[in-house]
User: Fold this.
Amino acid sequence: MKVIDPHLHLFNLEQGDYHWLSAKNPPYWSDKEIINKNFTENDLGLSFQQNKELTLAGFVHIEAGFDNINPWREIAWLESHCQLPFRSVASIDLSLASDEFAQQLTKLLRYDSVVGCRHILDENAVELLNSKTVQQHLKRLADNELSFDVQMPLENQTAVKILADILQLNPRLKIIIDHAGWPPYHQHNSHKKYNNTQWQLWLAGIQKLSKYPNCAIKCSGWEMTERKYDLAWQQQVIQYCLTEFGVNRVMLASNFPLCLFNNSYQELWQSYLHTTVQTSQELQQALCFNNAKHWYRFEKRQSD
Assistant:
């Protein structure tokens, strides 16, 4: 089966900044050394060569803090060495003044692989999304046919409502939710697993945003919530996303190399293949290939 991985990060520590990877800087993870090294597409290929069930047909590189002041530098590095088909989601600062934002966007649009942008929202989601400047910049992304990757907890009802209003006003803006909107963790054997407040708020956020056809969701980043996560929790999250968003707006992704906090790249994709999508070849193709190809515009011509 062919796979397009719609959420991964490659690192070049010699050329990039990666402030967050230093042990001296947050996040203060005791196991950060696992990922504080160079990663290229060769690391992906080696994993898939050992698995006859899967073929890596392409990937989507999500900005990784290479240079947030000059985000096109990361794209230039990627386009200079990557051989597999790939698309880029570039870093962009939504809080910039209009002129500065326009200049940054113009430079990013010169690169063929750029199909979207990301500004990590997380704990600043309400403040940023409520900003008229940010809303204008999101509209400008849509005008240039760029999607926006949203990283924020969907249990934040206020942020979800503002985002829903933005989607309502901008039907051309494609929003892709990262890491399933940070679903709260619970163990499978917990009697509270579907009753705690955080979980119910996350479910409500998923339900609200799924009503907009210009919104899709990626299921990944499990290790960021819980290093030794319960597969039953993972499967429950994926199933709920499928129930609300439907087969054509859900993608499975790795978050490589951060997935290495839990297991290997190959093992993660094998677990997807043998749990989530084992019953239907059509579902396999949609979640692991077709949806990523569509939402990240792998059919985009070089001249577009």
